[in-house]
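Internal ticket #5521
Category: modeling
Description: The requester needs a full-assembly model to guide mutagenesis choices. All entity lines are attached below as received. Residue total reported by intake: 1440.
Assigned to: D.W.
Attached entities:
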Amino acid sequence: MKRIGMLTSGGDCQALNATMRGVAKGLYNTFEDVEVYGFLEGYKGLIYGNYVKMKPSDFSGILTKGGTILGSSRQPFKLIDEPTPEGLNKVEEMKKNYNKLKLDALVVLGGNGSQKTANRLSQEGLNVIGLPKTIDNDIWGTDMTFGFQSAVDVATQAIDCIHTTACSHNRVFIVEVMGHKVGWITLHAGIASGADIILIPEIPYDIAKVCEALDRRTKQGKGFSILAVAEGAISKEVAALPKKERKAAVAAAAAKYPSVAYEVADKIKEYSGMDIRVTVPGHTQRGGSPDSYDRVISSLFGAEAVELIKNKDFGKLVVMRNNEVTAIPMEESAGKLKYVSPDDSVVKYAKRLGISFGDE
Amino acid sequence: MKRIGMLTSGGDCQALNATMRGVAKGLYNTFEDVEVYGFLEGYKGLIYGNYVKMKPSDFSGILTKGGTILGSSRQPFKLIDEPTPEGLNKVEEMKKNYNKLKLDALVVLGGNGSQKTANRLSQEGLNVIGLPKTIDNDIWGTDMTFGFQSAVDVATQAIDCIHTTACSHNRVFIVEVMGHKVGWITLHAGIASGADIILIPEIPYDIAKVCEALDRRTKQGKGFSILAVAEGAISKEVAALPKKERKAAVAAAAAKYPSVAYEVADKIKEYSGMDIRVTVPGHTQRGGSPDSYDRVISSLFGAEAVELIKNKDFGKLVVMRNNEVTAIPMEESAGKLKYVSPDDSVVKYAKRLGISFGDE
Amino acid sequence: MKRIGMLTSGGDCQALNATMRGVAKGLYNTFEDVEVYGFLEGYKGLIYGNYVKMKPSDFSGILTKGGTILGSSRQPFKLIDEPTPEGLNKVEEMKKNYNKLKLDALVVLGGNGSQKTANRLSQEGLNVIGLPKTIDNDIWGTDMTFGFQSAVDVATQAIDCIHTTACSHNRVFIVEVMGHKVGWITLHAGIASGADIILIPEIPYDIAKVCEALDRRTKQGKGFSILAVAEGAISKEVAALPKKERKAAVAAAAAKYPSVAYEVADKIKEYSGMDIRVTVPGHTQRGGSPDSYDRVISSLFGAEAVELIKNKDFGKLVVMRNNEVTAIPMEESAGKLKYVSPDDSVVKYAKRLGISFGDE
Amino acid sequence: MKRIGMLTSGGDCQALNATMRGVAKGLYNTFEDVEVYGFLEGYKGLIYGNYVKMKPSDFSGILTKGGTILGSSRQPFKLIDEPTPEGLNKVEEMKKNYNKLKLDALVVLGGNGSQKTANRLSQEGLNVIGLPKTIDNDIWGTDMTFGFQSAVDVATQAIDCIHTTACSHNRVFIVEVMGHKVGWITLHAGIASGADIILIPEIPYDIAKVCEALDRRTKQGKGFSILAVAEGAISKEVAALPKKERKAAVAAAAAKYPSVAYEVADKIKEYSGMDIRVTVPGHTQRGGSPDSYDRVISSLFGAEAVELIKNKDFGKLVVMRNNEVTAIPMEESAGKLKYVSPDDSVVKYAKRLGISFGDE
């Protein structure tokens, strides 16, 4: 008899259910006798002992369903060593509930913060398996996270829609793309949608260079331009500031503008006089059905989690490396972010195609 | 020999090219000898004599293409009797260019403002045919405009995406939907996506009623809610003001908030303390490929325009009435808006389903 | 206290669940106290007393879900007066189960055959409401059935895909479109996808005319052509036969060819030597998520069913007429099919655009 | 001044235009002075000197467009050393036309056969760059070809549609998936769509095992099943035959059945009595717009082709390896097929999830 716990933590994304289905199908197919417990609303459910015993039918028909049937909540790592409002020690409560249910393993679907917490629980002696969830694709140690490609699809479709209007009206449009502190979604959606300019956090922009790139298009007789701007895009001046001043500058901009795209639009207008339209697809990028790519990798990730459980190979994060699904020790990844490198070949190729990153 | 001019005026939408293709296919198939002239960037092209002689192949492959291959510009009606910056009389220039090309007819794809101008040109003696273009579906005299259903699709998909996140995180989300001064897109996309609350300009909202509706859902054990809010939504208090004060209040809100959804979110928070997320799909709603519904009606509209040209039956606006494509005199429609009636059966049915309009 | 039964009968389609959700939402919102009983697998469930008592949560999240959560089966009308294999009288059993559950009304989601059965039950004294379900749009008395527009979408997308290949390789392609004995889906998907030739049952084709139309395209320098052919398409020769011979001829073709498209391809090849490719999207046309159009009308249909129940206005079929949802007596519709008329304006407009129906 | 030729050869697929746009954008952005020549209908255009001089605007707006703007034709390798109908030596004609245009390089977008021809031209001294085009993903030496992921999307959506019907009616459905002699599309679309059984050429099936797998589902109370069957699927008995007999057996089946899925359906019915429905999405799988994944990799592939041209590094095939775009000598790949290995980790993971391959 195996008893496996599962939880989804942090911002939701498109293939959470597909991944849980993968884990569950693998478990039911591998072990004669297995019970699956779903903790509700992420680590909260583990801390407070809120869970449901899942039936195989709970996982039927969820392969294509966005969101998470278990609910989610922001991961509690930053505050993990502060007591809960009720004065409970979070780690101890999680261990207690894990042990109370006599779990053989806990499977955690989560992003960076959530995996850091998972690693902590592993260090505390729980049998933990991590599954790399995030639209941002910023988990260190894996080439790909589930959710990323579906988010790229949504962002690309949004830019496609904007493209026809920009072109018909000879306008310059900024589409703001999600991605937290990294530029992966923007980079991919920008290339996929034929954006002319791509601004990402890892390559701070010089507004003069951005305006030059816009100008070049006008001189080539192209009446419209599309900028794909990451929600974390940052200017060279601000990026060059010492940490404290930089944080203050970012906070000041956040207070002034609804979001980064409006700031960039304002700067372009100030520098060049051009009128800029802004579209912010926002949370649509993390919702809806997973695409076929994400459904495949999340199914494989789920199956690998079951392999690890079968082999009692715990404390591992399931990853995709060089096109193969495998697993790495959790502590290798925990606490690190995977950034786009300005020297990354995708950036190099994008520049070869004439896409400006506003840096040169 | 027939010589037909064509132009697309006002904000772009999804089936402009499909409609022009319909007109062109119909013309080439009906008349032995026909020349089609496309004026560039809407009425501007007609005023300044900027046009291209179109070939049949120009209309190949554009059935599914968003935007307009002729370009568009805001219609100039408000200022039609003011001279151009160069001091030209706009109406006279348009007549001159129409006559210089010896046109047999001018086909105008446009929304309310553009059709008003078209009507004026008709009154000036030009042979004009209007085609009802707008995502807003607010043209008086037709049950349906092309672009509307495709915009409903995009808005519905956006709300679908938000739905999975709202549900996974137990959040309240507002999705702001386009539609200018009317609520058609919001009404349809709201029903199509299962929104819990729909706010449209024609039914001013009472924030207390909106919060009551949200409260009812909480009491039913539903942790999340979706509001579909029209970009023109207005509160009862503001709607009740005399025109001048109302305009001032709307302007003040527009200065304070990026858009209406943020205002509503603020009011809900103020009234009830609830945290509200906002998503504004914006211009994505008018871009991208037309759906199959729009491709059919735009093709039929184009064919009807050719029937009218064949019968020399000018000064007509092509419309859909009671599920049949037909035509009405332009002056019947010009200058009037088609609003959602609060007594409309669609509103009545939506209320029957438990959807709140924030009015009762 | 109200007790309402519901069943879905006949081939499944895209907005069955959306419609049931509409009925349920309307019921729960209208009556203080209401119980909903779902009969499983269509009339079978009513005959054999297989049902589930539904909870409000059963209708959550099904707005976008294809198929039917109740299951379906072919409607039993043809044999309704023959006993079941167990020797039971079907009508009596259905009445017995209706009465045993003390139902106030039975809501039947079904196509032509299923509505005929519903009418019979109404004549037997049960309180029945019909909802017009079918991708074929062939229910007499309603301008629109739910499922139709979503099926048009799928068929249109299939032809769109074929279009790029046909065009790249200069090939002639037939795409076979569903629709049973009528041509509605083919007519609409054919126009929406820019098909060059449309063959439907209501306009028998002359293969010589079809080949002439193909020839005209070649002469115009167009290297490829697309035929949208209804699964019920029929040639002039066969259509002209007396009923018995006609049935025999159709049966002979059915035995020889996998489906009608292959027969048409063969005839074209025989007549003109042209090589024809065939694609048959088949059942994909009735599956998947309903589009936004179908989700709206099915929600309205569901709400109207509740209006009728509230008003104890039974024996009615909910319909769409002249763009308004309303209801008609079931017996008006029962047993009649709504065909495309060769004089229908849509056909006339399609011909104006140069589309050949193979008849002239 | 650079003069670059380009051609698309073999069956069309979704990102041909996107790839050509990548090459062109890269060329125009890299070289001061460059002329691009497009040969029409694949190698035919090179043999007969049919080409167009391309303008930068020819590549505008084609990123999302399926098919190929240059047209394509089956590659002529098998017969490359036989003369043309006019008695011309194909290789010599291609060299002559290459030299007449003073080309600096020839870029060939094509699959296995076409790359074999490209390699031959390289060996004959032409400067050739290959780009790996095929929905089948069977080009040896690259992890990924452009077109593949988009084809997986279409096949997955088709199975999704079938899923709702299968589930509503408790039916067993076979969906036949493209892929020529290999099982890549079927494997990925099968996993992505939650197919219960996947049959691919590389893992010959035992009909008894297939029926056992169906039986297991019935015993688990699951009323429906989905089989994803590759167009090249083969039974153990036939696969075990010596080559000549095997070919004869395949040919006999091809004569008897419209396609492989019908043969499998027949065998299942014969073995177990079960009724099976068949859907064959066919050519829809290679048409339509490329998805965002394919648009990214095809853009990168195009950029890499330009790098190679810039570095005069010819005789290379652009490939994706370990998630990086790079290039390999053409002769390494030419003439080899990349098969799914029965020991491939994807197959292993799929089996872990309970998917049957009909082999054990």
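Resolution: model delivered.
Comment from assignee: The interface with chain D takes residues 8, 11-12, 14, 16, 41, 65-68, 71-73, 154, 157-158, 160-165, 167-170, 173, 258, 262, 277-288 of chain C (CB under 8 Å).
Ticket closed.
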